[in-house]
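Researcher: Quick test of sequence recovery. Tokens follow.
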């Protein structure tokens, strides 16, 4: 069945493919068959699309542990190698991926299904949705419509997320067992390594880039790799983590301020000269989205040292929203919806 494709613009422009509902059922069945086989093979510090992992445990819990250990609670200096892989999902080689998986899969039915999904071309007669002009804004190296047909996985399928972990498990094993890196964390194609020796990190960066090109037909993004002192703060997965404290990215805070401004503008556009409790179905639908959005952001903020930021946002940027969204506690941890 044809996939549905559309382009999202936040946090950056990206081409998404959504498989047909029946295909997604098959994807989940395959995923459930493969995870028990592969989960024991993955390293502990790979955090994307795995049960009991995720961004919070990678950036807040594990990275903070690493920083405290390598700096002896901020008494020693250390450095961070941070990088990501250029056009990762569109660069995955189908033959390489299939060969990696088939080494650990003997069931002929599973192998047939794997081959069908991996080599499937989602750009064949897809259903395009959304603003069609956005497709022209997707960089060619990040679009399945413009790359060789023997490479690339569609962003949006659960199988693609799993296959990404299988593919980069080769990198994980190389870093942990060949380079012997003690402090290494990966989330999808973003990774970082901590070490007290700057020259060792420079050497490892060259070795990693060579390994990626030779074994996986990948390469580090030339503009997204750097080595720097960790006391500058590590910008990773929405947070800036230092040995002593954690902050949120400035652009995340700025994005919420813009959304709050638009939310207030939308309410005022209802021609309410004075804010009143006028709950029409349309207004309720709008507020459900606003309520979910605001609490999503504050759910991220609560894990950082941001009490004063949360207080400032509520008092200075909520505007009319303060009538409807009430702080659940004195810490501004989240908000409750006042419908009275």
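Model:
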């Amino acid at each position: 069945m044809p996939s549905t494709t559309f382009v999202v613009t936040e946090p950056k422009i990206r081409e998404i493919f959504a498989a047909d509902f029946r295909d997604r059922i098959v994807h989940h069945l395959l995923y459930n068959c493969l995870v028990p086989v592969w989960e024991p093979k993955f390293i502990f510090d790979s955090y994307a699309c795995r049960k009991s992992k995720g961004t919070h445990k990678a950036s807040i819990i594990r990275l903070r542990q690493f920083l405290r250990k390598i700096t002896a609670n901020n008494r020693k200096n250390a450095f961070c190698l941070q990088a990501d892989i250029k056009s990762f999902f569109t660069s995955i080689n189908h033959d390489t991926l299939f060969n990696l998986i088939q080494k650990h899969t003997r069931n002929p039915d599973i192998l047939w299904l794997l081959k069908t999904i991996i080599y499937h071309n989602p750009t064949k007669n897809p259903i395009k949705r959304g603003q069609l002009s956005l497709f022209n804004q997707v960089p060619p190296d990040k679009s399945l419509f413009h790359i060789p047909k023997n490479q690339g996985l569609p962003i949006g399928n659960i199988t693609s997320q799993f296959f990404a972990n299988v593919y980069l498990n080769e990198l994980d094993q190389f870093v942990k067992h060949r380079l012997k890196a003690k402090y290494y964390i990966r989330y999808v194609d973003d990774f970082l390594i901590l070490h007290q020796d700057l020259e060792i990190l420079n050497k490892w960066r060259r070795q990693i880039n060579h390994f990626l090109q030779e074994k996986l037909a990948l390469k580090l993004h030339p503009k997204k790799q750097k080595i720097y002192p960790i006391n500058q703060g590590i910008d990773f997965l929405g947070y800036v983590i230092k040995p002593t404290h954690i902050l949120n990215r400035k652009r995340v805070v700025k994005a919420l301020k813009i959304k709050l401004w638009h939310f207030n503008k939308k309410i005022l556009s209802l021609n309410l000269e004075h804010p009143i409790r006028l709950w029409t179905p349309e207004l309720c639908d709008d507020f459900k989205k606003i309520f979910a959005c605001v609490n999503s952001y504050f759910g991220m903020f609560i894990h950082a040292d941001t009490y004063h930021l949360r207080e400032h946002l509520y008092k200075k940027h909520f505007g009319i929203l303060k009538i409807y969204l009430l702080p659940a506690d004195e810490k501004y941890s989240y908000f409750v919806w006042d419908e009275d």
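The longest strand covers residues 220-229.
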